[in-house]
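Subject: sequence -> structure tokens, single chain

Hey, anyone have a minute? Need the predicted structure for the following. Not urgent.
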Amino acid sequence: MIKLNNINKYYKIGKNRFHALKNVSLEIKDGEFVSIEGKSGAGKSTLVHIIGCLDNFDSGSYILDGVSVGDMKESALSATRNSKIGFVMQDFALISHESVIFNVMLPLYFSKIKYNMKSRAYDMLEQVGIADQALKSVNQLSGGQKQRVAIARALITGCSIIVADEPTGALDTKTSEEIMDLLININQSAGTTVIVVTHDPTVSAAAERKIIISDGIIKKDIMS
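Reply:
Had a minute. Here:
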């Protein structure tokens, strides 16, 4: 379970301090499919970066599966990101000149899972429907195929949470629907918690729960 309590986050901009998140409290249960929505600059990405242990916070508490994230050392944060949380980004964040299978295997090099790496990667690519592209360079793929690679990479360490920041932002409508169908299937079949930042109505419609954030404050928390 994810539990945030009175989280505050500030950024220094020149001589000023910007209050990005203001006393944000939030619980997300295991297996939920949640969208986080709001205008640009509302605090969406800051919130999911904290949830994903990519960014720290200035005050409040964050409990992930019973453990205080704020008390973790960097080595523990890194291990948590690698084992519990998979990331899917709008720009795919792949190594474009490397092969598809190399990109999918990459998290395993930083994990304790050192056995059957290539076999595991092929299994993940099969799950997302592009095992036949395994030996191609990423720069030979379409946008939708690249996002499938990113999802396979996110899943390979057996993560229990997927954090997706605008995963359909660079895709056309049909491909966006296909990617959302894939995330829904992963959520429903494996019980993986899916947290998606979005402006896309297609993504919003797929979520069981919608969190609306504005000016660093959660304004609405709606169950579909």
